[in-house]
Every structure is written in C-alpha cells, then in structure tokens.
Amino acid sequence: MNLVRVRKMDKPSVDAYYPQNGRVILHVDMNAFYCSVHEAEEPEKYRGMPTAVAGSMELRKGIIVTCSYAARKRGISTGMLVTRALKLCPELIVIKPDFDLYRKYSKAFMKIAYSYTPLMQATSIDECYLDITGSKQFGTPQHIAEEIQRRIYEELGLPCSIGIAPNKLLAKMGSDMKKPNGISVLRIRDVPNVLWNKPCGELFGIGGKTAEKLRKIGIHTIGQLARTDEEALIRVFGVVGAWMKQAANGIDHSPVVEDREQSKSVGHTTTLPHDISAKEDVNRVLLNLSDQVARRLRRKELVAGGVQITIRTPDMKTITRARVLPAPTENAEDIYEAARKLYAEHWSWDKPVRLLGVTLQHLVPKEESAIQLDLFSYEKQPKKESLTKIMDELRNKFGENAVVTAGMLGDDPSALLRNHRVRGTSLQMDFADKRDEDLP
Questions:
Q1: How does strand 353-365 pair with strand 302-312?
Q2: Which of 155, 233, 288, 409 lies 20 to 30 Å from 133 when distance is taken between CA atoms?
Q3: Which residues participate in catalysis according to the annotation?
Q4: Are 25 and 88 in contact (CB under 8 A)?
C-alpha cells in the first residue's frame, strides 16, 4: 500500500507539463492533404498508390499541386509538370482537383482540433495552430496531440503531423520534422542541437531569395544566423534582420489568433489556354474573375476593403499588386474597376500573360461595415442590391451561365471561366464558409 502511494506521488501531475508563464502551441499539418482526401474517399482505388492532384493538361494547368508519399518515393514533387512526372512514374494516377471535397474535409478536421481549444488559428486549408495552454483538462500536450492525430485518422481517414512547442514558429518547424503521421516536441533549449546545423532556407519564414542573400554575406546555417550581430543583419535586411536573428534562436512572440470563422481573403485565379495580351481579352478575364469573387464574398456576407491582382508570365514569373478601396464593397463592378486599374498601372499591354487572378482582402462582416453610398446614385442602391440578389439566386439554382453580363461574353479564352466553372486556387480560408457542409 505504501509502495503504491509512493508511485502516485512520484508520477508528475498534468500541471507539470504546462508552463506557469509560457504557452503550449500545437501545429497540425495534414499530410499530402489533397491526395489523402481522395484516398479516404476511395481507399480501394488509391490506397498505397502513387497519386498526384493536378490541373488539366489541355488547359495548360498540368502542374502537380501535391502528390502522395508513394509518388514522392518515385521522384515526383510539387510543382513538377505532369508530363515529366508521367515519364518518371508511368503508373502515376493523376486526379483532377475537387475543391468542394477538400473544403469539407478541411472543416471536418478543424472541427476536431477546435474541440480541444477555442484558440485555433487556421493558416490554410490544411493546417492550423492551437494554443492549448488552458486545455490541461484533456491531458498532457503529448496526449492531446496523440488524441487529435488519432481522431483525424479514425474519423476521416487522414494522416497528419503535429508539432508541440512553446511558440508558433517552433510548432511549425516541429510538424515538419516527422512526416507522415509524426509528432515532434521542439523546445527552445532544443534549437541549437536540432536546427542550427540546417541551412537558413529551412527556417520557417525565410524564402529562397533571402536564403541566397544570406549565403552571399557568408551566413549558410541557422546556427550562423543565430550568432550573427543583430545590427549587422538590420543594416542588410532592415527590421526583418532583427526577426531573423530571433527566429534562428527559436524566439517567437506572435499569439495564436482565433479566426476560424473569419476569412482572410477570397480569391480566384485561372490559367489561360493560351497566352493573352489584348486589352479586351484581359479585361474580360478580370471581369469574370471579379464577378466570381464578388459572388463568394456575398455568400459569406462579407465586404472587401482591398483588391489584389496576380499575373503570371509565360516563363512562370509571378507578380502581385494590390490597392486599398475607397470604401468597403461587395460589388463586382467596384472590384473589376480596381483590378483593371491595377493591371493598367503595373503591366504593359504588349506583354503576354499565362495566368490572371483577383483576390479580395481586408474582409469584414457586412453588418459591421458602413458601406459608402455615392451621392448621385444612392437612390438606386436598393434596386441594385435587389437585382444582384435575384441574379445570385438564379445562378445558385441554374448554374453560373444562367445570368451573365455582356462584358463577360466572347469567343476569347476567358469564356472558359464559366464554361468550366473554374474554381479559384486561393483557398486560404475557404473552409470558413458559413454554410453547413457535412461529409458525405
């Protein structure tokens, strides 16, 4: 009896696994998410097979978006052309994207994660941060991570990796350490032994261009970056230099921001069947894209305070340009006008483009925003909103082609936007759609 009591006293309580002043953060990262979703839907068809999700080769979207781990073992990687991937792996199964299906599974795994803490910050369709500092009633951080991972796999058939750390940066780095289906603990004291021998480019937040710039000044590893004088970094990189030194030492003070029900952006992009440069063709594509994003914005009952366009050239270079709107809007005409002006200001009409996109930013709920009415047309606003509502209802019932404006029609490539019901690739927070969509 005394022996049992001693054992109970020696066993650490759950409280001992949670810091008194710090935080405990999880980063949940779904593994090969798109391919895993298709495998969960049709396991008899895809389980264990080399698969890849990619766009249509006929429409020049034949680029690997993601691939299964079985495909990765055969040399397939994200961003690879489908034609090259099929040469490397002739038995590769290429699957067309199904964004509605991905959104359903995204919302389902987020719902599981959310059940352990209200402090959940979703950063994309397939990953999120959880602040579980106040979740000790569910057990130790390790136990919570194991529970979330187990439930996502058992209930949805999806693998995920989870990082456990005192901050978001290290949690993100931890989730990348063991894939697929791993759990890693990464503390600040572990950083020198675990991260410092890695190239700077592997530190989350440092891209290829910054890593190359660091190499040019003799900084090759995260450890070297951590030991570099902060003032020297600031002279080269500005205020980002101070952040890089902190990050290299495993320091990150950014909180987990609860934004599960708030979209960060709504966007559509489309790869064109062939390069275009004619003004009327470009404007028609921008008009179609503006109409599509405006529809989604209204469905979410949001208004936008900014517009961004994306342009990709035939040699795959991508540029983005944005502007703040004079007043928040849900109107496709306002969005199109801003997108058209951005294009005219920042791109030459004689330069061909391969891809165009329109993204709405600075989103707020419509009910919380004061929409500015034009002094000379405010009397027409109720009629305009009523007409827009009717058009939305017709499209919801009969499809996107039920109602189109004259500017959207033509024999040019942009007509494919509606004929093929193009779904945008800006999936930043699509799972936040307020409509209830349960798994089939």
A1: antiparallel
A2: 155
A3: 127
A4: no
Residue type, 243: W
- Tell me whether residue 157 is exposed, middle or buried, using C-beta atoms within 10 angstroms of its C-beta: 0 to 12, 13 to 18, 19 or more: middle
Rounded Cα gap, residues 228 and 216, in angstroms: 14
Terminal C-alpha separation, the chain:
53
Burial classification of residue 207, based on how many CB atoms lie within 10 Å of its CB (0-12 exposed, 13-18 middle, 19 or more buried): exposed
Angstrom distance (rounded) from CA 334 to CA 290: 9
12/16 Cα distance (integer angstroms): 6
∠ CA(196), CA(202), CA(203), 5° rounding?
70
Place of tokens 């003799």: 218
> What phi, psi does 392 have (nearest 5°)?
-60, -45
Q: pLDDT (tens digit, 0 to 9) for every residue of the chain, 440 residues total?
A: 333 333 343 446 899 999 989 999 999 999 999 999 999 999 999 999 999 999 776 656 688 999 999 999 999 999 899 999 999 999 999 999 998 999 999 999 999 999 999 999 998 899 999 999 999 999 999 999 999 999 999 999 999 999 999 999 999 999 999 999 999 999 999 999 999 999 999 999 998 889 999 999 999 999 999 999 999 999 999 989 999 999 999 999 999 987 544 556 888 888 888 899 999 999 999 999 999 999 988 888 889 999 999 999 988 888 999 998 888 899 999 999 999 999 999 998 889 999 999 999 988 887 765 544 444 444 444 445 554 555 555 555 555 454 445 444 454 444 444 444 333 333 334 444 433 333 33
Q: Contacts for 216-219 with beta carbons within 8 Å, 24 or more apart?
A: none
Q: 199 near 221, Cβ under 8 Å?
A: yes
User: DSSP characters for 357-390?
Assistant: EEEEEEEEEGGG--PPPPTTTGGGHHHHHHHHHH
How many Å apart are CA 72 and CA 52, to the nearest integer?
Answer: 9
The residue type found at 250 is: G
* Helix residue spans in 115-229 (DSSP H): 141-156, 168-175, 191-194, 208-216, 222-227
Residue corresponding to tokens 């483009």: 353
| Measured distance CA(354)–CA(262) in Å, rounded | 31
Q: How far apart are CA 167 and CA 241, in angstroms?
A: 19
pTM, 2 dp: 0.67
Residue 349: CB atoms within 10 Å:
10
